[in-house]
Design goal:
Blueprint (H helix, E strand, L loop, with lengths): L21 H48 L6 H4 L7 H5 L5 H6 L2 H5 L6 H19 L13 H16 L2 H23 L5 H6 L2 H23 L2 H13 L5 H10 L1 H12 L5 H4 L5 H8 L14 H13 L1 E4 L7 H14 L4 E6 L4 H11 L4 E4 L4 H11 L1 E6 H4 L13 E3 L11 H12 L3 E4 L8 H11 L9 H5 L2 H7 L4 E2 L3 H4 L6 E8 L3 H12 L3 H5 L10 H15 L4 E5 L2 H11 L11 E5 L5 H13 L5 E5 H4 L10 E4 L6 H11 L8 E8 L3 H9 L2 H10 L2 H5 L8 H19 L1
Parallel strand pairs: 1-6, 1-7, 2-4, 2-5, 3-4, 5-6, 8-13, 9-11, 9-12, 10-11, 12-13
Helix pairs in contact: 1-6, 1-7, 1-8, 1-10, 1-11, 7-11, 7-12, 7-13, 8-10, 8-11, 12-13, 12-34, 15-16, 16-17, 17-18, 28-29
Length: 740
């Protein structure tokens, strides 16, 4: 949306004669309409925020009350440094801080031996503890156990989420118009009539004429960019209600991160600032805070720590962003790209493993207005030539990068290298190709979920590409002293945040769809399965050639990242043979995993007692481990809360199977957010299946899952396997036939 800038104070500054009389009255009318649209949007947004706050308050109050109930009343002495005498209050049966907090001054004064000063001190101490607790509690929305209060919160958040990322820009415009028009409209009134203008004093007359000129420029620009229509549309979006409560719940399931992002913004929940800023030294943090972040080309709202990460990349220019997996490194990179695009940069380059190329392309297109061009496959040279000519974000792989012409006049405004630990060995071809590009680019962003303080030599290698002058100061002793010490020492080039530090208001369940392309062997297997009408073979064709399977490669990367972060992983598949191939991939010689860290697979043929032993061994394993499960056997009846990463090898025909499987890990007692990664193949049965299941079928399933009947007989609410299989097979046969 175009920004409304201030105008010169005189008509001559614009090179036009100031309007008077009817023309000014028309301008005033246009200005009033624009002002009303801005005021209406601000009011609608304020009401939407208040609805969220009103729905949030009882939930937060309940959590605070529970916390206060668990704090013994003796802790009130700590707040008053031991000056408070509590013996009489305790003798009266006040056993917790909550009991005192909920009491009135009159109630406490009725206790023998409690005077006015003691009562006031006790209440003040209880309220101080309550305020501290209120800053730490986090509201979680449980989709599997909805109740009226959480439903009210979801419905209130629905309006803000539905308004989309454009709402923030519309509000910024509305604020500017509201403030400026609030001054211009009264000032211009004398110029609405010639007689009124003539009877005005000289200063008011000059001010009115100048205001009329500025008002004309402002309304003309607003008409050109359809500002009033955009503001009105934003208001309509804020007033839009879901067709039903169930629609809001389903939307929450699909976009939970956006709901929690809005919730965090509305509630202004305090986080550990030092942790959210990666324990950077004050001088670096101040430089980052001073860095603006333009959102003109961005289509996603950022959490506070994500905004800081994008600003860090821009302010420090050549850095490693090493956030733990699940914190949105890709979104932070996209935000940096969008900012630089707004500054006028036209060319950008992303280098990544082949397994995430499709995901990068999708994320750029969905999260920004930038053009994403996958430079991969047979057309890569033509696409690369198009990128050099027209600009955009070229997304290529480590293996393709060395085949592309080295940068000359077309230098990327930002080079992003995902999974940067892939270039830790400077002698490899991929590392040498990346080094060539990093030397030619002013801004470089390396992304990796591997904690560099655990691999100091690798970190030196990465920093040598980015800020070689920093290499001599990177000492092993800093890493030995602890992660905080290490991060402060390498702050100019490294930022890392952990989940436990910044996920205070994020959902306990994070869903990520991992899109991959078939390898040539997998494509052949898939076409053969489609020709034969074999639905089950179509579903597992992506694993036909384990050595070249893109899905297995991505799974291997996810498990590897979980390993370096000390996280346990559960891998689900409907097919036993797929799990065997997964086991083989995890035992590949290039992997650091030992066979003893992979448990299972748990399948229908494994006796119940043996299944439980496998789960117990998996849970008891120190640090990282992997458990393989057939989804129909491992998805029901087992408690897998030791795992915080879940990988689904393929989408399921029955959505309840996925829900039940994920619920094995995401349940009461799970202290970390659970990440669910679903492996998907583009242009395949996966695409078809998701398209069908995420439409009305998903709505019906979500409704049925919350009924008593569905809980008792989950199979009764799912789609017919046979009917769905026939439909998908026929559609894929027609699609592939059309390609011949």
């Amino acid at each position: 949306m175009a920004k409304v800038e201030g105008a010169p104070s005189t008509g001559e500054a614009y090179g036009v004669a100031p309007p008077v009389g009817r023309r000014v009255r028309d301008l005033h009318t246009q200005g009033v309409r624009l002002y009303d649209a801005a005021r209406t949007l601000r009011a609608d947004h304020a009401r939407a925020l208040e609805a969220v706050r009103s729905a949030l308050k009882p939930l937060r109050d309940d959590l605070v009350a529970q916390e206060l109930e668990s704090i013994p009343v003796s802790r009130l002495k700590d707040v008053t440094e031991g000056r408070l005498r509590l013996s009489a209050i305790e003798a009266a049966g006040f056993g917790s801080v909550r009991a005192v907090h909920d009491a009135s001054r009159f109630d406490l004064r009725q206790i023998p031996g409690v005077g006015a000063q003691t009562a006031d001190q006790a209440l003040a101490a209880a309220r101080q503890i309550a305020r501290a607790v209120q800053e730490t509690v986090s509201v979680r929305i449980d989709v599997d156990h909805p109740e009226p209060r959480t439903a009210a919160l979801v419905l209130a958040l629905y309006r803000l989420v539905e308004a989309g990322p454009e709402l923030r820009r519309c509000l910024d415009t509305a604020d500017r118009l509201h403030d400026r028009l609030g001054e211009l409209l009264p000032a211009v009134l004398p110029a609405t009539g010639r007689l009124r203008l003539a009877l005005s004093g000289r200063h008011r007359r000059e001010a009115a004429l100048a205001a009329a000129v500025e008002l004309r420029a402002l309304t003309t620009e607003a008409a050109r960019t359809d500002v009033r229509l955009l503001l009105t549309q934003a208001s309509a979006d804020l007033l839009r209600e879901p067709a039903s409560e169930i629609e809001a719940w389903v939307d929450f399931e699909l976009r939970s991160a956006e709901y929690y992002s809005q919730l965090a913004e509305v509630s202004a929940h305090r986080t550990d600032t030092a942790a959210a800023e990666g324990f950077l030294p004050a001088e670096v943090a101040e430089r980052v805070h001073a860095q603006p972040l333009d959102d003109t080309h961005r289509r996603v709202s950022l959490r506070g720590y994500q905004s800081f990460g994008a600003r860090f990349a821009l302010a420090q220019r050549r850095v490693v962003l090493g956030d733990e997996m699940g914190l949105g490194k890709t979104i932070q990179a996209v935000a940096a790209l969008a900012h630089l695009a707004a500054e006028g940069h036209a060319h950008f380059l992303v280098v990544c493993p082949a397994s995430v190329l499709i995901n990068w392309t999708r994320e750029i297109r969905s999260r920004s207005t930038l053009r994403a061009l996958p430079v991969h496959g047979p057309e890569r040279q033509d696409t690369y030539a198009e990128w050099r000519e027209r600009g955009g974000v070229a997304v290529t792989t480590f293996d393709v990068l060395h085949t592309l012409p080295e940068p000359d006049g077309t230098r990327p405004g930002l080079l992003v290298v995902d999974e940067a630990h892939y270039v830790k060995n400077p002698d490899t071809r991929r590392a040498k190709s990346v080094e060539v590009w990093t030397r030619r680019c002013d801004r470089v962003l390396f992304l990796t979920g591997t904690p560099m303080e655990n691999r100091v030599e690798e970190f030196r290698t990465l920093v040598r590409y980015l800020q070689p002058e920093l290499v001599p100061v990177i000492r092993d002793s800093d890493a030995v002293a602890g992660p905080h010490t290490f991060r402060k020492a390498v702050a100019p080039a490294y930022l890392r945040r952990n989940q436990q530090d910044v996920l205070t208001e994020l959902p306990a369940l994070l869903h990520v769809d991992e899109w991959e392309e078939f390898s040539a062997a997998d494509e052949d297997a898939y076409r053969a399965a489609v020709a034969a009408g074999n639905f089950m073979a179509m579903r597992r064709a992506a694993y036909a050639d384990p050595e070249k399977s893109a899905k297995l490669q991505r799974l291997w990367e996810l498990v590897g990242e979980a390993e370096v972060n000390g996280l346990k992983v559960v891998v689900f598949s409907y097919f036993r043979d797929v799990l065997e191939k997964v086991r083989g991939a995890l035992a590949h010689p290039q992997d650091d995993l030992l066979g003893k860290s992979v448990f299972g697979p748990i399948s229908g043929s494994v006796p119940a007692a043996r299944r439980q032993r496998l789960v117990d061994d998996f849970t008891a394993a120190e640090g990282h481990a992997v458990l393989l499960c057939q989804i129909e056997a491992g998805g029901v009846g087992l408690n897998l809360q030791a795992a915080s990463v879940v990988v689904l090898c393929e989408p399921q025909v029955k959505p309840t199977l996925e829900h039940q499987a994920v619920a094995r890990a995401h349940r009461m007692g799970q202290v970390r957010p659970v990440q669910v990664h679903r492996l998907l193949a583009t242009d395949s049965v996966d695409d078809r299946l998701l398209h069908i299941l995420e439409s009305k079928t998903r709505l019906f399933d979500a409704y049925a899952r919350r009924s008593d009947t569905a809980e008792a007989t989950p199979d009764a609410v799912d789609v017919s396997d046979d009917g769905l299989a026939r439909r998908i097979v026929e559609e894929e046969q027609r699609r592939l036939a059309g390609q011949l």
